[in-house]
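Worked example

This section walks through a single chain of length 193. The input is the sequence exactly as stored; nothing has been trimmed or padded.
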Amino acid sequence: MISVIIAAIEDDDDKAFMRNLYQDYSALVRSTVYTVMRCENDIDDLAEDVFVKLIEKIPLLRTFDCCKTAAYVVYTARSVAINFIKHRDVQQKHTFYGEKADVSDELMIPEGTLEEVYYHREELEALSDAVLRLPDREKDILYFKYILEKTDAEIAEDLSISPGSVREYLTRARRAAKKLMEQGEKRNDSPKL
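Given that input, the structure is written out below as tokens.
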């Protein structure tokens, strides 16, 4: 993918500069992103984002010696990874998954006593925790459907599956989230020794 991005640069000197920058610093960028993220899930995508940001800074980067360039690349990689984490955390904080057939009716904001509101908040947190424990594919399909409000056809195209399979995957993902919620409730209800 980075070769496509570099190929899109119009100036041949800038293309050559970015190719060399990528060859010299791609391992450092990946290492820096991994240090911040502590998981390998999004390292490739974030590394590409770093180099896309660096394309805008080619004139500045040309003025640096190798030590300053390395420091600037590391700083950019750290910033991209930290921004990704912040964005992901905000999304997760405001994410609501469910469907009428499963748990969403039970989780509508209650009007009533403080106890009911507290109970409702606990259910939302349990649902959020359950969804976060799902495999990535199930999280993605729920995110596409309920947060991005994509159609089944759009989801099928994004995930490279048939449109008929989307409903099946959604049903499985909702059931898995509900099961994880129920398991969490049973764990919390069990007496502590």
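What to look for: The domain at 2-93 is CATH 1.10.1740.10 (Rna Polymerase Sigma Factor; Chain: A).
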